[in-house]
Design goal:
The chain has about 160 residues and is mainly alpha-helical. The chain is about 65% helix and about 0% strand. It is extended, with a radius of gyration of 21 Å. The chain starts with 5 loop residues before the first helix and ends with a helix. Pfam families: TctB (PF07331). It comes from Polaromonas vacuolata. This is DUF1468 domain-containing protein.
Length: about 160
Amino acid sequence: MKIKSQKDFFSGLLFMGIGVAFALGATSYNVGIAARMGPGYFPLILGILMAVLGAGVLFKSLTIETPSGDKIGRWAWRPLVYIILANLVFGVMLGGLPSLNIPAMGMILGIYALTFIASVAEPGWKVKNTFILATILAVGSYIAFVVLLKLQFAVWPTFITG
């Protein structure tokens, strides 16, 4: 059988793999029934739906011809590295790293760091636009998580708040 769209083929495999992994992981929890859902019910259903969606995309890649076969291009290493680095830095800044004596810097500074590091991945990024985006994200996150949901975690660095 000939692959007629490489992008759809590998996307379908990815969706199916993640869906099956979630569905299998959800079975270790109490699933329950539709009337009395357990903690594993929602991830199980989502995993099954994602696997079915992946099977549909995979089937499409094998049956519907696309121009030039939708070849997969080169890996975009720069965005990949910066996005992963931004998330790691955010995690360290939010909770600190006691084994290396790095204190928690809080949610606000973590969001600014996350936004600036991730924005560097975009070619031709602008500091002003990134600063505006980071400010909106920080204020929105503060309102959503601290004010409305009343979650308790460091908002500011520990050396400032004590």
